[in-house]
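To illustrate the input format used throughout this study, we show a single complete record. The first block contains the structure-token representation of the backbone; no residue identities are included at this stage. The design step must infer an amino acid for every position from geometry alone.
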């Protein structure tokens, strides 16, 4: 289950309902899906998508999403430094960025520019689904030894191209996984 942290206030949330309420107030969608689907350790991308079709299909239909794919990042992933760099700089997208964590974890950072908390982070783990609304300033931290298998959900993959803000704010915040 996710953990939410507001570092400038030294505050954390670990209760699913409190996290959902906090994120809902900021227009960010969060929910938990079961990961007890009986996937083999060496599951193919097609097997992963088929295992979660029961949840994916209605979610995608309701949100107008048209495609889904699986992304996997491990310490052995080729070009890991380039991938890490692409995700770890503050950016926005012209459409929602939706991720369901099948395995592993990753840290989404948000820069809301709200006076009461400028930056907060959500550590997503297996079973967490998070939707970053279009045009929301954020970045993603894979952690020191990345281990992520996630389903990406798109309206149009072209809308997922990052638009970097060049603010540099991401350099002020770290939360090792």
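Output of the design step:
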């Amino acid at each position: 289950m996710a953990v939410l942290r507001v570092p400038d206030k030294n505050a954390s949330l670990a209760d699913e309902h409190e996290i959902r309420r906090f994120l809902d107030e900021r227009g960010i969608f969060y929910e938990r899906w079961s990961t007890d689907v009986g996937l083999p350790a060496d599951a193919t991308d097609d097997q992963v998508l088929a295992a979660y079709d029961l949840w994916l299909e209605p979610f995608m239909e309701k949100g107008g999403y048209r495609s889904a794919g699986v992304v996997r990042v491990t310490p052995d992933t080729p070009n890991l430094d380039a991938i890490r760099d692409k995700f770890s700089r503050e950016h926005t997208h012209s459409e929602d960025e939706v991720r369901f964590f099948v395995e592993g974890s990753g840290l989404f950072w948000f820069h809301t520019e709200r006076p009461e908390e400028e930056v907060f982070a959500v550590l997503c783990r297996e079973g967490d689904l998070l939707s970053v609304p279009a045009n929301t300033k954020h970045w993603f931290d894979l952690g020191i030894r990345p281990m992520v298998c996630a389903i990406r959900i798109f309206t149009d993959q072209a809308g997922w191209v990052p638009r970097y803000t060049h603010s540099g704010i991401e350099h002020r915040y770290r939360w090792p996984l």
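Structural context for interpreting the output: The first strand starts at residue 3 and ends at 6. The helical segments are 16-24, 45-51, 53-63, 80-87.
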